[in-house]
Design a protein that fits this description.
Elements (H helix, E strand, L loop, with lengths): L3 E4 L9 H16 L3 E4 L13 H12 L22 H13 L3 E4 L3 H13 L22 H9 L5 E4 L6 E6 L3 E6 L7 E4 L6 H11 L4 E5 L6 H11 L5 E5 L2 E2 L9 H7 L21 H9 L14 H7 L10 E2 L2 H14 L2 H11 L8 H11 L24 H7 L4 H14 L4 H15 L4 H12 L7 H8 L1 H14 L1
Parallel strand pairs: 1-2, 8-9, 10-11
Antiparallel strand pairs: 3-4, 4-7, 5-6
Helix pairs in contact: 1-10, 9-11, 12-13, 15-17, 15-19, 16-18, 17-19
The structure holds glutamic acid.
Length: 493
């Protein structure tokens, strides 16, 4: 059987970064097993449907480069891939379960259900509509067949509920957590289908996984409590279940508790891949998709050695479920920054220029070749492409000088020293090595420490004590620009 994995988001809002990780792991495993990666939109809950969310999810995948083999736009052999377009499919399966004795019609009004819930709460209990009490409730198990039939024919609202077997230990397997046992008396009879013609998540999800021949279900830990029901549904339909793997939680940067949207706001980091209303995403914050993928790849999985930097293809090659961890994974923005910096270091400077220009127009007038040469000088210092804006001195004269640096390093004799050095520099051959020698020889000749000339040179060229090595910088700027910047600094300081 060909491995087929799906990412099955509900379009109820923007995709949380945890959802991106789920999509990524599905993709990695699908590709590692030489199978297909499918995106299925689970939009049966009309009340939670949010306009634009589906588009947002697909655009996020496109930005990250997680390409599906089958999805709602692309189509595929087992589509459609949007559950609202498969509406007709589900009724038959719900009715089949009723016929087999695995489900029943229920007519309880929402007021009645609320009352039961409130009463249970008052007694410090939780109301479960399930094996222990369903016979006393308003459904086809307590009503006669003819009464049930007549209610349905009269068009009374109903739901179809799953008939959980009474007091059975069911054992199921999760690839991450191992064997799990649940007593069915702790489960409730979940609604599978509603008389408005819409299935609930549980029915649609299981039916579609079967019809779409899904072999592995990889999803967030929050779905683990549904696994008992899903296992029973596969039994009821007499279908072979897929393998299940529930991914560990993403934890707050402190390591305590589940990562939430509010942590992002408090910690000043995005929790969405792309912007959504007022919340900016990782893309807008200036992160590279390769870095985000690498970072997320290691949030809950490791390749078995201490390799950290991996391309998507390398992660595909190394991925396996047996190295997905059970415990939560701490979300550490510093680590993402590190991955982003590493990603930039591996990119060709022309590519960095292209990515920078997509987001910034500060250096539009600077010729491409100069931008490329400038970036090569400061590449190791960039965390994000936008950080190139901190190196404006590469392409423009400094428009201000750092006060503290000037006070400390710019002396009476500095202008004279710089002018004298300039004369030597003009005579020096090209290349940063030659510049380095010129500085060295000058200091020896004058019997002064290197700092005496290096620091003021840097102030004149950069405006502060930051930047790459002075010899590389001089070599990059060229003698004319150096001359000019020294002249301006001597005049202004
Ligand atoms: N639609 C569910 C979600 O939004 C899918 C869960 C699953 O993968 O089964 O996460």
């Amino acid at each position: 059987m060909q491995p087929r994995l799906r990412f099955a988001p509900s379009p109820t809002g923007p995709l949380h970064i945890g959802g991106v990780r789920t999509a990524l792991y599905n993709y990695l495993l699908a590709k590692n097993l030489k199978g297909k990666f499918i995106i299925r939109i689970e939009d049966t809950d009309q009340s939670r449907y949010v306009e634009g969310a589906e588009e947002y999810i697909l655009q996020s995948m496109a930005w990250l480069g997680i390409e599906a083999d089958e999805d709602p736009n692309k189509g595929g052999p087992l589509g459609p891939y949007r559950q609202s377009e498969r509406k007709e499919t589900y009724q038959k399966y719900a009715v089949e379960l009723v016929a087999k004795g695995w489900a029943y019609y229920a007519f309880d009004s929402s007021e009645d259900l609320t009352n039961y819930r409130e009463k249970a709460e008052k007694d410090g209990e939780r109301f479960l509509y399930g094996p222990l009490n369903r016979k006393g409730l308003n459904n086809s198990l307590s009503l006669s067949e003819s009464e049930t039939q007549s209610r349905i024919e009269k068009g009374k609202d109903f739901v179809i509920r799953f008939k959980t077997p009474e007091n059975k230990e069911i054992v199921f397997h999760d690839e991450v957590r191992g064997e799990i046992t649940v007593n069915t008396n702790t489960l409730d009879d979940k609604v599978l289908y509603k008389s408005d013609g819409m299935p609930t998540y549980h029915l649609a999800n299981v039916v579609d996984d079967h019809l779409m021949q899904i072999t592995h279900v990889v999803r967030g830990e929050e779905w683990l409590p549904s696994l008992a029901l899903h296992t029973l549904l596969y039994q009821a339909f007499e279908w072979t279940p897929p393998l299940f793997a529930h991914l560990p939680l993403l934890l707050k940067p402190t390591g305590k508790g589940k990562l939430s949207k509010r942590d992002g706001e408090a910690g000043g980091f995005p929790v969405f891949p792309l912007s959504w209303n007022e919340s900016i995403g990782y893309k807008e914050a200036g992160y590279e998709p390769e870095a985000l993928l690498n970072f997320l790849g290691l949030l809950g999985w490791n390749p078995g050695d201490d390799t950290e930097e991996m391309t998507l293809a390398e992660m595909v090659e190394k991925f396996s479920l047996d190295r997905v961890q059970k415990s939560g994974a701490r979300f550490d923005l510093e680590k993402l920054n590190w991955f982003n910096a590493q990603t930039l270091q591996k990119l060709d400077p022309t590519e960095i220029v292209a990515r920078y220009k997509k987001r910034n127009n500060n250096f539009d007038a600077v010729p491409e070749s100069i931008l490329v040469a400038g970036i090569s000088l400061v590449k190791e210092r960039l965390i994000k492409v936008d950080d190139l804006n901190d190196h404006q001195y590469l392409f423009q004269e400094p428009h201000s000088y750092d006060d503290k640096a000037v006070k400390k390093q710019w002396k009476e004799e500095t202008p004279e020293l710089l002018q004298a050095f300039l004369k030597d520099l003009i005579l020096a051959p090209e290349g940063s090595e030659a510049v380095k020698n010129a500085i060295h020889d000058f200091c020896e000749k004058r019997e002064i420490g290197m700092g005496k000339i290096m620091a003021p040179l840097r102030i004149a060229l950069v405006g502060s004590l930051q930047g790459p090595s002075v010899d590389e910088l001089i070599n990059f700027l060229g003698i004319e620009a150096v001359k000019q910047r020294i002249a301006i600094a001597c005049e202004k300081l």
